[in-house]
Amino acid sequence: MPAPPAPDFDPATQIHIQGVSKSFGPKRVLDDLSLDVAQGESLVIIGGSGTGKSVLLKHVIGLLKPDRGTVEIDGVAIGKLGNREITEFRRRFGMAFQEGALFDSMTVWENVAFPLKRLSKMSQDEIEARVEECLTMVRLSGVGERLPSELSGGMRRRVGFARAIAHEPEILLFDEPTTGLDPVTTALIGEVIVDLNDRLKCTAITITHDMAIAFRIADRIAMIHQGKIIAQAKPDEFRDLADPRVQQFLRGEADGPLTETVEPVEKAPGKGTGKVTRKGPEKEPDKGPDKEPQKGSQEDRAPARPDGRKG
């Protein structure tokens, strides 16, 4: 069934996702997913691994096109934009990738300045001032001459934040900003994101597994499961949602509705039941007594000659 038509554009809604479905081969990753994000809102999307969080983020920025449904930014359906239009449109976004995704051969200063040199007509003095301003906002003033290899994991993430905000985007996207970081550094990353949201007044979408950071930075939390948004609420309300899937995720429990559904294994026609079975180590095929390898060399097996010699 095709997705329903998008309603009239609401100025308070900056990002409007309506009935989006996306499959890769036989696997459906997004399934008729709908979600709105208000202008200036900090939305955090949570969910298990492989549930479609990153795929959804790529649809928002126009890196992927949905098989069905629409993604609109300020009323513009980005799936209908041409290559040149979508390139220009992406300048409205700032993307902070996992691990920072910095250029290893560039200094911190050069990494942050990179989008300014490519996307703006700023003078060198203006670029230098803006880079220092962005590094100060992420609490990294004075590290501009260092290389990424000289920074800790948390510092690299913050350099990535500085680069993402350098060209003053309208929408910020954070992809797993605290993965692999210790609790203290995670808390610092959370404070920096809150500071950026408060100061820049951008619309922000963050995807994460980290519930501590989610509750710290979110105006609203949405949970994705099996390609759909199954719950969304303000942080204080989200904790108390009765949905057992939400509660299992919040508590980090192994048993529950999130882990009850197992994808069936395709079976060959007329073979077995489709159940997953464990295979033991491969065994050598049974050669049988008549196929027992003969011992000795060809010379050893040659018949004796009358003179007592072989061969």
Structure write-up:
The protein is of the alpha/beta class. The protein has a single domain, classed as Rossmann fold, CATH 3.40.50.300. It is built from eleven helices and ten strands. The chain has a six-stranded mixed sheet with strand order 6-7-8-3-9-10, with helices on both faces. Helix 3 packs parallel to helix 5, helix 4 packs across helix 5 and helix 6 runs parallel beside helix 7.
CATH domain class name: Alpha Beta
Proportion of residues in extended strands: 15-25%
Helix-strand sequence: EEEHEEHEHHHEHEHEEHHHH
Radius of gyration: 29 Å
Average pLDDT for all residues = 83
- Which overall shape is indicated by the principal axes computed on the Cα atoms? globular
Number of domains: 1
Secondary structure topology:
Blueprint: E1 13-24, E2 27-38, E3 42-46, H1 53-60, E4 68-73, E5 76-77, H2 83-89, E6 93-96, H3 108-119, H4 124-137, H5 153-165, E7 171-175, H6 183-200, E8 203-207, H7 211-217, E9 220-225, E10 228-233, H8 235-238, H9 244-251, H10 257-260, H11 298-301
Parallel strand pairs: 3-8, 3-9, 6-7, 7-8
Antiparallel strand pairs: 1-2, 1-4, 4-5, 9-10
Helix pairs in contact: 3-4, 3-5, 4-5, 6-7
Short summary of the structure?
With 311 residues, the chain is α/β, with parallel strands linked by helices.
